[in-house]
């Protein structure tokens, strides 16, 4: 009698950052945000939910080990919201099976290692909520689903859709208008690709949840950002995406990442997420954009030192040459493992990390540092679609 569904959900990386809550329990943000959904073919969370009358309690396994459901308030909130919704449907139609009374077992894993330093809460909660809606047959639209995912983690609400996704902060106290909408599907701008530079840094920083709470309580710059910067930037970003204007998209993305890290520095006590390698990436991308008119790239950093680089597909080979020249692979990682990209786009005869074409000389003159091993791994990916059902009952 058990019902079982398996789904996958993507990671998203914001280009207008969410940082600050106006309601911590409902996870309502202090500003709207906008992100790019990355391809699930490369990075995803995968969740299987089994629903059965014989499951006496709700249980959850994360990457193979069981974790306590009651101890995780956000997980409890997501499950309760989905069950309440199902219960209402059953009340309205007594013919429906009483799935709202059955126990839920959840198995969830990420195909990327935690050691990759990538946040997994966005894809994880998006996948949980999407799978729950499938197994309980909840007739929800994308924006409605995003409100449930939001209860797990704010950024998760943007992983419910593919392509370019905005999270409207909303004004209602109950959060009914704080939901995601798709600005453009992944097919709108398929040439946009991303590199994730995984920076070698074992140190665990301040969690997003605690960090943003301190920022809202102490940063005057954050208050300025919420009211005077983000609303206009959201409009400009939507226009840049609609026009596929990479230069404008890149400038806004880099400025917004810089401002997010500036409000972290303005937080008291201050929060540092970027390290020396992150700063070297900023300098390198700035040098490339200024000195190499044929290559454009945009950097962005979340609550950690890893860089995400957005660039048009045609520029990727040259960017990989530059990044691997200045940040050669650590000697303990094989070149094959260093990229998930099968070198398909690297021109014949070019050895990454070694060849340095003469036309890039100006960049080398400006940026004369090479830091071997500082970038542990490079993941090459692109814009992708929203959650997928892999198998249903
Ligand atoms: C820097 O969504 O992880 O990645 O809502 O407390 O779970 P909670 O925070 P979370 O914060 C993400 C912050 C960010 C920016 C962004 O993704 O917009």
UniProtKB/TrEMBL annotation:
Lineage, uppermost ranks: Eukaryota, Fungi, Fungi incertae sedis, Zoopagomycota, Kickxellomycotina
Enzyme Commission number(s): 4.1.1.33
GO CC terms in record: cytosol
Origin species: Tieghemiomyces parasiticus
Keyword annotations from UniProtKB, A to Z: ATP-binding, Lipid biosynthesis, Lipid metabolism, Lyase, Nucleotide-binding, Steroid biosynthesis, Steroid metabolism, Sterol biosynthesis, Sterol metabolism
Stated family: Belongs to the diphosphomevalonate decarboxylase family.
Residues spanning the membrane: none
Domain Diphosphomevalonate decarboxylase-like N-terminal: 9-180
SUPFAM superfamilies: GHMP Kinase, C-terminal domain, Ribosomal protein S5 domain 2-like
Protein name in the entry: Diphosphomevalonate decarboxylase
A Pfam family that the UniProt record links to this protein: MVD-like_N
Pathway: Isoprenoid biosynthesis; isopentenyl diphosphate biosynthesis via mevalonate pathway; isopentenyl diphosphate from (R)-mevalonate: step 3/3
One biological process term in Gene Ontology: sterol biosynthetic process
Annotated catalysed reactions: (R)-5-diphosphomevalonate + ATP = isopentenyl diphosphate + ADP + phosphate + CO2
PANTHER family, per database record: DIPHOSPHOMEVALONATE DECARBOXYLASE
A GO term, aspect molecular function: diphosphomevalonate decarboxylase activity
Ranges where the Mvd1 C-terminal domain occurs: 194-390
